[in-house]
Amino acid sequence: MAKRKASKEKPQATKSKPQDTTEKLSRKEYEQQLYDLHVELVKLQQWVVATGARVVVVFEGRDGAGKGGTIKALTERVSPRVFRVVALPAPTDREKSQMYIQRYLTQMPAAGEVVIFDRSWYNRAGVERVMGFCKESQVQKFLQQAPMFERTVVDSGIILLKYWLEVSPAEQERRLRSRIDDGRKTWKLSPMDIKSFNRWDDYTRARDEMFEATDTPWAPWFVARSEDKKRVRLNLISHLLQQVPYQPVEQPKVELPKRRVGRYKAANFPFKYIAEPF
């Protein structure tokens, strides 16, 4: 991958405008831009650890919107001990008997952590509502309580960022169809994806009501257009870096010490080497 000299300044957020999907971003340009952003993410990580900051990033969006790929691009060059991805499975019977928000509370960050929710408590306002997994009264209660819960999160000192990845019906269908015959992607196509495929309008209505109830000054929703996977990854990471007040943390200069090799003669052990067909 081509490397670029990292800028000393944070990437600047740009004004919102429709994506030009007619001209795809080249892989070379994408990797150059992503390299610079990864350097900044490492600086953010160092600042989080040094200051004990706590960050929560929520990713929501329709099936096939590109949440997984964006999260991978965000985390591939940082430590999983600092950037922790949370993708909870369906609740157990025990969890169903608890407060709805309870199982998410245990995932909140401690000092020096960034927690990324690959889907979150907003399941109640989206998939649970559309697919009939909860009562409408439960949805309305959630929409009333979510802003208060998030106010508590923010007042505790946690930086809370909420992202919705928006994709068109045509692009979503193209991506879902690509998962059918591609052996690398079949695991991404769940029975729930098939059931919810023809409920686009229901999801749109649920999204709009969710935005209206939970887009608050202390925890606003940020929408990222994801027709182009490469562009949405760059745009979202750049935006995230602008939302966190990190500063470069001076690191000690590292030099490898001199070493001597060969003072010990390795044993003639019958190692079981793996086959090397490549």
UniProtKB/TrEMBL annotation:
Residue stretches making up the Polyphosphate kinase-2-related domain: 24-251
Residues covered by region (Disordered): 1-25
Family matches, as Pfam families: PPK2
Enzyme Commission numbers on file: 2.7.4.-
Chain intervals with Basic and acidic residues compositional bias: 8-25
Recorded superkingdom: Bacteria
Stretches assigned to coiled coil: none
Keywords associated with the record: Kinase, Transferase
Keyword Kinase: yes
BP-aspect Gene Ontology terms: phosphorus metabolic process
GO molecular function, one term: polyphosphate kinase activity
SUPFAM superfamilies xref list: P-loop containing nucleoside triphosphate hydrolases (SSF52540)
First-tier enzyme category under EC: transferase
UniProt cross-references to Gene3D superfamilies, sorted A to Z: P-loop containing nucleotide triphosphate hydrolases (3.40.50.300)
Family label: Belongs to the polyphosphate kinase 2 (PPK2) family. Class I subfamily.
Function according to Swiss-Prot or TrEMBL: Uses inorganic polyphosphate (polyP) as a donor to convert GDP to GTP or ADP to ATP.
Subunit and interaction comment: Homotetramer.
NCBIfam families: PPK2_P_aer
Name of this chain's protein: ADP/GDP-polyphosphate phosphotransferase
